[in-house]
Amino acid sequence: MVLIFQKATMKDLPAILQLYKKVIQTTFTTWNENYPSEDLILNDIKNSNLFVLKNSKNDCIAVSFLGINDDSEENWSIQLKRPQGVARICVDSDYQGKGIGSYFMRKLIDEAKMRGADGMHFHVCTENISAMKMYEKVGFKNYGPGKSNYGFDYYKYEQGF
């Protein structure tokens, strides 16, 4: 299968919104019709912090934020000077369980390294078992519960480079 990893553009916006909507309706997620919002996605695109994975038909099959997360109050286990994080990582439900998420995450790690990151850290909802398995498959470790302002319990996932 041919897969194309690239920064999201404004042209991708309708497909990205549709992808999030589909995943919200078909799989476990803490997201809803208000989150992620179109404004948030537009901001991520404008700041070059949103990435997509496309198939050979140019369909968006995965999307994720990659950048600096607003989690400065978190007590992280690995002390990083130039951390990056992912958020709102989403894989089309038709492609889940096929290694697409792991492939996409490896590409995001490569991009973080190219941006000069010395590691990554982010939160994962404690109920999102499939996401945790995928993150661990690509080398992240669960460092226990973290702070959450979103009404869900989260684990801290981290990896130094």
List the main descriptive attributes of the protein structure presented here:
7-stranded mixed sheet, Aminopeptidase
Number of structural units classed as domains: 1
Distance between the termini: 28 Å
Major sheet strand order:
1-2-3-4-5-7-6
Give the CATH topology: Aminopeptidase
The CATH class is identified as Alpha Beta
| Structure annotation, total helices | 4
CATH architecture: 3-Layer(aba) Sandwich
Roughly how many Å is the radius of gyration?
A: 15 Å
Given the helix and strand composition, which structural class is it?
alpha+beta
Low-confidence stretches: none
Order of helices and strands: EHHEEEHEHEE
Strand content: 25-35%
Summarize the structure in words:
It is built from four helices and seven strands, in the order E-H-H-E-E-E-H-E-H-E-E. It has a single domain (4-117), classed as Gcn5-related N-acetyltransferase (GNAT) (Aminopeptidase, 3-Layer(aba) Sandwich), CATH 3.40.630. It is 29% helix and 28% strand. A seven-stranded mixed beta sheet has the order 1-2-3-4-5-7-6. It has helices spanning 13-26, 38-46, 100-114, 129-137; strands spanning 4-7, 50-54, 60-67, 83-91, 119-125, 141-145, 154-160. The model has no long low-confidence stretch (mean pLDDT 94). With 161 residues, it is an alpha+beta fold. The radius of gyration is 15 Å and the shape is globular.
